[in-house]
Design brief:
disordered C terminus; alpha+beta; two-stranded antiparallel sheet; globular
Length: about 130
């Protein structure tokens, strides 16, 4: 798998943070868990339950040494989020993400949770959206 990075861009690989000083390409020759900088959510952006789940899964990638403890937090948050979700699509995405997390496929779980962003439920719970509407 090839990854193309721009000057100054960060890449999170198996818990390590790498920054490149020039435009470069990397080829991963084996299985590796990585996260590109543009997929990283900052804590202040985790303003809805779905975004908070994403942030927790992201933490499992960025800090694999604590992934087991973080997975327990994810289970509790996931259960509560699914219970309170009114959108069936969101519930289905969370169910699929739960399966990926239990399999240790965190990046796949992030992709599933990212699909929940922009749903009516996500937009209704996001303070930034509410501020823009006012």
């Amino acid at each position: 798998m090839f990854i193309h990075l721009k000057r100054g861009e960060k890449l999170y690989v198996n818990g390590a943070v790498l920054r490149v000083d020039r435009r470069t390409s990397l080829e991963f020759l084996n299985d590796v868990t990585f996260l590109l900088e543009n997929h990283v959510m900052h804590a202040e952006e985790a303003v809805t339950p779905e975004r908070q789940l994403y942030f927790v899964v992201q933490s499992m990638i960025m800090d694999p040494a604590n992934a087991g403890m973080t997975a327990e937090l994810y289970k509790h948050m996931s259960f509560r989020t699914r219970q309170n979700a009114s959108d069936e699509y969101v519930k289905k995405q969370i169910d699929l993400a739960d399966r990926k997390v239990s399999e240790g496929r965190y990046f796949d779980a992030l992709k599933l949770l990212r699909c929940c962003f922009g749903t009516r439920q996500d937009a209704a719970q996001s303070p930034a959206q509410s501020d823009e509407a006012a």
